[in-house]
Amino acid sequence: MTGMVGRKLGMTQIFEGGRLVPVTVIEAEPGFVLEVKTRQKHGYEAVKVGFFEQRKAKLVTKPMKGVFEKAGAKALYRYVREFPMDGLQVGESVTVEKFAKGDRIKVSGVSKGKGFQGVMKRHKYRGGPDSHGSMFNRAPGSIGASSFPSRVWKGKSLPGHMGAERVTVKNLSVEDVRGGQNLILVRGAVPGAKGTILEIRKTRAKMAAIEIKDTKNNVVGSMELSARFALEGKGALMHEAVVCFLANQRQGTHATKTKGLVSGGGRKPWKQKHTGRARAGSSRSPLWRGGGTIFGPQPRDYSYELPKTARRTALFAAISRKIKDGELHVVDGIRLEKPATREMAAILKNLGLSGGSTLIVLSEADRSVLLSARNIPGVDVVQSKDLNIYEVAAHNGVLATKAAMEALEARPL
Description:
Elements: E1 3-16, E2 19-27, E3 31-37, H1 39-42, E4 46-53, H2 62-71, E5 77-84, E6 93-94, E7 104-110, E8 113-117, H3 119-122, E9 160-163, E10 166-178, E11 183-187, E12 197-202, E13 208-213, E14 219-225, H4 235-249, H5 308-324, E15 328-331, H6 341-350, E16 358-362, H7 367-373, E17 379-383, H8 389-394, E18 397-401, H9 402-409
Parallel strand pairs: 13-15, 15-18, 16-17, 16-18
Antiparallel strand pairs: 1-2, 1-12, 2-11, 3-4, 3-6, 4-5, 7-10, 7-12, 8-9, 10-11, 13-14
């Protein structure tokens, strides 16, 4: 059994290893197996399960009453769902103990209704100037030309009803299962308000396997990596994380001199009229050579932040892309008795990483490796705790030690 129906009770927080973890508490009462679908009879394998007892018999249709009677159920159920089958029989119970801590799940439910909303809240429009007289503060703007197509394009983002729609949140993790209370604690938020009925389904975690080599390119073993190293897609998130990283590196010290900062007199160069020349009020005018600059760049702060979870997900998505493209190499260790650029260059050549940019990831600082690699063009060394998405994306290849990969595996996502 890979799924259940539960009710959202709310959110709370638990402490795990000294770390505060926000969790959603879901109540999932035991379900009753009503029917078993088989490939021979129905063309697919699944089980039909009833959840949450229905106390008002008049709300149950006659066909469903017949299903309950045929299965020998002693009660009527409000919600009947089908889930993939794994050996259950009619009459058996399905409890929260089918889940375990660390399971990856996806949760579906109806999101909170927000009513009728404008484009700024519904579609994240930036809006117009907020100054007085703008007349364009929160308006949607143009919705189409008049001559062609003389209509509004289908799919145009406009104000309308927001929320109250089925939403599925994927890649959630189970933090705790309390069988005696029929509770599942899920890390993070799930759709809907308190009392929302949710569908909880296990997902098949995609595992990544990678070979471990020695510095002479001989395979000495393999390593099973968790699903965080098998992420797919996430291109938009990776782009956003790289842009954020580069923006945070900007100094923002650019500046131009305005009219009040350049040298020059404050008096009128000549009288206003009857000189045959254009009117002039100051030699510091932006029209004059040596005058001030209008609307020029001024010092500013370009930095902004992404949520921690978004940054970490983007990093592991970039590493996943490197693994998929065969650009990540794992070695059992890099051991140099003393700094030697020649030996480091030989290691990179053995592994097929010479001639391009390479990022070496270590679990802890190693002075010999750092000094050996710093003279090789395009080669950088970083510790696993300091690894960021820009360094991963900017290098053609990544060379990581087994200990560094284990440290990344232990990193919270």
